[in-house]
Amino acid sequence: MSETDTARVTLDVWCELQCPDCRAALDDLRALRARYGDRLELRLRHFPLEKHKHSYAAAQAAEEAAEQGQDWAYAEAVLARTEELAARGEDLLTEVARELGLDAEELDTALVDGRHMLIVDADQAEGKAIGVTGTPTYVIGGELLDGSKNQDGLRERIEEIADRLLA
């Protein structure tokens, strides 16, 4: 392997944008990003929960934001406002897009025409198939780490696995 081929590892983050536990996990994700930089690819995977009525729309909005180049920035901005999302729904989703300089009208149209529903449905189906039951849940190196009930020690466990895979 040449020096330009930097080893990389992928961390799938099964997330729901109306979930307070996912918001709490942002500090861990930021710390992982700071520690590993480009060697760790954080992949946002959608797992909307029925108990949160705007989570499915938020997942679709995040996919549109990703198409516009702002996947994690958008997800983090929405997660920072989970209570407001519960109260305001799609109005908040377009407001966040506008604040980030995205094409808010296009995001609104995407919610209406449902162009990202298949991606969200596929993520959710895959999550169920591998044993995701709540959010946040992480998959790294084939290991599933459920943070939906307790996140204590998860960042350390992710770091152990990442360090082993990158060694």
Estimated helix fraction:
55-70%
How large, in whole angstroms, is the Cα Rg? 16 Å
Straight-line N-to-C gap: 13 Å
Biggest beta sheet summary: 4 strands, mixed
User: Mean of residue pLDDT?
Assistant: 94
What general outline do the C-alpha atoms trace? Answer: globular
Low-confidence stretches: none
Gist?
With 167 residues, the chain is α+β, with helices and mostly antiparallel strands. It is built from eight helices and four strands.
What does this structure look like?
This protein is 56% helix and 13% strand. With 167 residues, the protein is an alpha+beta fold. Strands 2-1-3-4 form a four-stranded mixed β-sheet, sandwiched between helices. α1 (20-36) links the parallel β1 and β2 (40-46). The protein is globular.
Strand-helix topology:
Layout: E1 9-15, H1 20-36, E2 40-46, H2 55-67, H3 71-79, H4 82-88, H5 90-99, H6 104-113, H7 117-130, E3 137-140, E4 143-146, H8 154-166
Helix pairs in contact: 2-3, 2-5, 2-6, 5-6
Which features does this protein show?
167 residues, alpha+beta, four-stranded mixed sheet, 8 helices, 4 strands
